[in-house]
Amino acid sequence: MTSHTNSMKVPPAANSDSQADALQQAAEWFAVLRSEQADAADHAEWKLWLDAHRAHQDAWLQVESIKTTLDSLARSGHPHAAKAALLKPTDTTRRQALKLLGLAGLGLCSGAMFKRYSPWRDWVTDLAASHINYRVNVGQARLFTLTEGSRMWLNTDSQAQVSYSLALRRITLLGGELLISTARETPLFDRPLVVDTDHGRMTALGTRFTVMHNRHETYIAVYEGAVTILTATSGQRQLVNAGEQCRFDAQAIQALQPAEKAREAWTRGILLADDRRLDDFVAEVSRYRQGAITVAPDIAHMRIMGAFPANDTDAILASLTETLPVKIQRYGNADIRLVKK
């Protein structure tokens, strides 16, 4: 395939003697050919792949059959019923939804098709997913129990979209911070759970982890299990195990560091400062109130230790002025600056 589809490279035909591999490759080729960037070279390579093995031809017929079925359901309105069934927790309704979409047999015989990160899986998610939006305001933190049993905490001024489909449990963190404690589904219907940001995808491997996202980077700390990171642009991968954390953007993943346990204390309404710099701690406090809080450069290096109530930033600021040689300067209605006494 040409350079614009390098991230979708299909393995050579010599390695495609299993049905699952052939289906995976057929699904990826389908995603390539339906994209706006597909050109004549892509179609020529697809034809070579198709003619190389009988298993490829059988797999392609299955993918086309699925597409035809989904298109027909979309025109008739049945996807709404399928989406509703997918949101119900019982095994019976999930099996019914799988059969409704004509994918039950495919899902059972080729689970590996949806266990990998591929354009096909995202295409199915977008086509037959049910989306739920969650948001918390400044100064709040809330726990949400998701329909399949996972628990998601959203921190102050955060927004996430949760999508359920045949292929994935996807959480898109649009801004702010979340902590997710994943639940395992049934062995028959165990969809991967992923968290997406602008910078990449994090795939949970039976785990509890926190993610914080801003326009520059994504931060992740893992407390149980493990998480695989895949960056959005460069395709760099990194396994983050329990007790580790790192930051990444769309191009690169920074070095792993020991996880800061204090990063999950906000789910209990506490902001922990374990020998943190004053400017770093105040930047976090500022997220919990309207208006900006800044720190004068000559006191930014001061260190903070203690546990503070996340829902009372005035009390936090008062405590800082009592324990450190700093005072508050107010600007306008909401902005505050900490300066040396």
Q: TL;DR?
A:
Strands 1, 2, 3, 4, 5, 6, 7, 8, 9, 10 and 11 form an eleven-stranded mixed sheet that branches. A three-stranded mixed sheet has the order 13-16-15. It is built from ten helices and 16 strands. The N and C termini lie far apart (65 Å).
Contiguous low-pLDDT stretches (5 residues minimum) are: 1-17, 77-120
Net shape: elongated
CATH class of the largest domain, please? Mainly Beta
Structural class: alpha+beta
Per the CATH scheme, the topology name of the largest domain is Jelly Rolls
CATH architecture descriptor name of the largest domain: Sandwich
Question: Helix coverage percent of residues?
Answer: 25-40%
Q: Residue-averaged pLDDT, rounded?
A: 77
Q: Rounded to an integer, what's the Rg over CA atoms?
A: 24 Å
How many strand elements? 16
Largest beta-sheet characterization: 11 strands, mixed
Spatial separation of the terminal alpha carbons? 65 Å
Strand residues, percent: 25-35%
Determine the number of helices (DSSP H or I, runs of at least 4 residues): 10
Integer count of domains: 3
Q: Could you describe the 3D structure shown?
A:
With 341 residues, this protein is of the alpha+beta class. The chain folds into three domains: 3-128, no CATH class; 130-261, Jelly Rolls (Sandwich), CATH 2.60.120.1440; 269-340, Phage tail protein beta-alpha-beta fold. The protein contains ten helices and 16 strands. It has helices at 19-33, 40-52, 54-76, 78-86, 91-100, 104-109, 112-115, 119-128, 278-286, 313-323, and strands at residues 130-136, 142-145, 151-154, 158-164, 169-181, 193-197, 200-213, 218-231, 237-241, 244-248, 257-258, 270-277, 293-295, 303-309, 326-331, 335-340. Strands 1, 2, 3, 4, 5, 6, 7, 8, 9, 10 and 11 form an eleven-stranded mixed β-sheet that branches. Helix 1 packs across helix 3, helix 1 (19-33) crosses helix 8 (119-128) and helix 4 runs antiparallel to helix 5. The longest helix has 23 residues, at 54-76. The protein is elongated.
